[in-house]
Structure formats: structure tokens, C-alpha cells
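Deliverable D4.2, example record:
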Amino acid sequence: MARMNTLLLGLMTVVGSLATASVAAARVKGPEAREVRCTVNGHHKSTFTQRGGAWIEDAGRDGQFTWQERQRDEWSVYLDDTSRGMRLQLDLWTK
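Output generated by the structure prediction step:
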């Protein structure tokens, strides 16, 4: 099995299935997450949006990438991008 790289992004803003400002401000758990916005040093880095079992990462100038959802638990969504040999944990608890 190929070694998977780990990707660390800064702070996250999570939007649940109700996509309202109050939901975004509240702590959304893994099962409700549909969109995650990541920032590094206060600057927008990537937005992950769920589309079926896949998540589309819009990384701005760096491009767009497709991640497959591996699993979820109460506080995280786990994604794989086998084409780039990467794994990602969207940790909604610690952001």
C-alpha cells in the first residue's frame, strides 16, 4: 500500500446542512458537515464542499481537487485523494 501524506490546514469554518449563519457559528458535528472553509494565517486557503460521497476542494489559484469521503465520526470527516497519495482529516472539534 502506498504511503499517504497528511495535509494540515489552519482554522476552519464549518457549515452544516442547514447552511445558516447560526449553524456556521455553532459547533457543527461530523454527520452534519456539508462545507468546510479553511484559512491559514487569516487568509482563505481552501473550501471543501460535499457532493454525494465526494468532496470538491476549491483551492483558489492552486486548483480544484476531488476527495473521496472515507468515513465520518462525531467530530471529523476523513477524506482520501488516492491520485495524489493524500489523506485529510477535517477536524471539526479543534478546527
